[in-house]
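Fold this complex.
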Amino acid sequence: MGNVQIVPPREGEGTSRRNFYVVAIYGLWGAISAALGLPALVYLLFPPKAKKGEEWIEVGDIGRLAPLSPVELTFRRTRVDGWKVISEKSTAWVVKTADNQVTAFGPQCTHLGCAYHWEDAKGQFLCPCHTSLFSIDGKVAAGPAPRPLDRYQTKLNGSKLLLGKLQGSPEKKS
Amino acid sequence: MRRRIRGVNEWVEHRTGIQSAVRQFLYEEIPASSGWHQVFGSVAMFLFMVQAFTGALLAFNYAPTPGDAYNSLRYILTELTGGRLMRGLHHWGASMIVVVVVLHMVQVFLYGAYKKPREATWMVGVVLLLLTLAYGLTGYLLPWDNRAYWGTVVTTQIAGQAPVLGPYLSRLLGGEGAIGVVTFARFYGLHVLLLPPATIFLIVLHVFLVRKHGVAPLPGDELKAKQKFYPQQVFKDTVAIFIAFAILFMMAVAVRVPLEQLADPTDTSYIPRPEWYFLFLFQTLKLFSGPLEVVGSVVLPGLAVLLLILVPFIDRGQMVKVTRRTVALAFVLLAAIGWGGLTAAAVRSTPKEALAAAVDYSGPTDWMQLSPEEMVGIAYFRQENCVSCHAIGDQGKAVGPDLTKASIHKDAAWMIQHFKRPSAMRPGTSMPPIQLTDAQLNSLAAFLLKLNEKNATALDNAPDFAAQGALLYQTNRCGACHLVNGGGMKIGPPLNGLSKRQSRSWVEDHFADPRKMAPGSIMPSYKLAPKDLENLTSYLFALPD
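Structure:
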């Protein structure tokens, strides 16, 4: 190290060494960015590992429910919310059809998630946010809603109604 | 196309001057002697950026309150893909940044690069070292497991000992009385809100000063032509950064960062230990006792920091070659020996229990799901030393058959008969009969039926307190009234999630006199030996929710 030398100017040393440096710099930084960035994307975008499947929740007795007159039933369900299992109030609009089938709609408008309600006078579900209208079978009658109301899986135990997962409507876009 | 890009570039350059600023930064002239010994600063800065990046990612899935902190971290480790890697990078990155910052300082110290006019650069650097350690201190609490809690108890007590300022410091850290939500919020606030901007500001100042005075030359440099920072030195910095990152990444993947049980302020058996780079301070503390303790905890470290800051004013001679800086070299060697000796002494004095007691709650904890009956089986399995002849996966000797292989699993009745008289069921076997009662053999069989290749390691992880606790649970017939992991009766309350409902001391007092703690309880009182009480309570507290 110590001996004094006059180092010739670098200009003439040729560009191959310089090119090697530049390529190595970009290459190594590229590798580091990928090794950090890809796991970060996976970490943020992959859903959490699946928890136990949702069980059926009993929401009430629908024996006395009049056909074609929707009621909003309130129930508690436990939901996995990140690192917590929370017990929360949830509702469903339950309709008994003319042929005694039961349908349970999720309580949110399919447009932007507002809570809708049943307008007895109109015989339709009305969302107050952007006036989407749904007919009693959940189909979009008017307004900006892009698809029919979501439905819960349903099961009857005698006259007790059990609700499962919330799913999209079985019908395609209206 | 090329012309358009150039057009855009020119537009941006004209409006912002970014290109010429970058060019000025990269084509900075540095002394001819610059080289590999000057890479540490860049590596430290890179590691700081990795910490900021992984820290932000962890914060996206982390709830900074006691209790929730632990659960959300467990969620990151066990539920999220890549979560363990992120925590590993952040955890090992913290250790690595301490190492690199110290190496950076040692290099600057050995070369005497702090000399006039670079005194301020050095002093800012010392403050940055202190900030690095402050991250380590505040971040240590954030997992809120036993290790974090008890480590911080000691830290805040030490801060409270500082002369004059002590009481104010401990009030500032929220450590008055007990460590709880206030301390946690302040440590978190420091760790993510106050320290990062302070660090960024000081790094910018530090780099600005380095640029202002230029990289420190060696004697004789003035005769040589200067070189440019880019690309040769940038290449060396990049290679060093890449090596550091590769090591960090491998550690994050290969070395598991444990998560102990949820912080338990009533756990009297826990032996706290600080992070490895603080062990020397911990050991220094032991050298002083009684009224002198404050010397080891506050005065000596304080003086050391002061001395470090004043280095440029103590050594004011001309720059000389590294090889002639014998005093500096001797000083570094002494410091290294002192640090190494204290750390080694601290490691050697760490009781085995402090290492053994740690159960990794972030790992596969299949043993938590076992019924008490099966858990007791583990106790007998260990007591009878079955692994002296049987292999369990890749552990144990292979004299007898591998017990994880499902093919040898018969039904429980066959196994019990086989335990009693091995040769009657398997003529010619060399296995001796097991001298246990039918009920005990039943537990052993229950465990072996549960054992398979997948859960073998996880079940082998089952801590001794759990096996012993389950044994007590069985012998006291707790299952006649209580439910654990779906087995037992519902006369008393189910015991899963007990740790969420009651404190440890409540449970221990409750065993001695149930009615005093829960009026109207029909549970009889249990007079347990202290060790048994501890094992049983630990076992019940380890049960999943």
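The mean pLDDT of chain B is 88.
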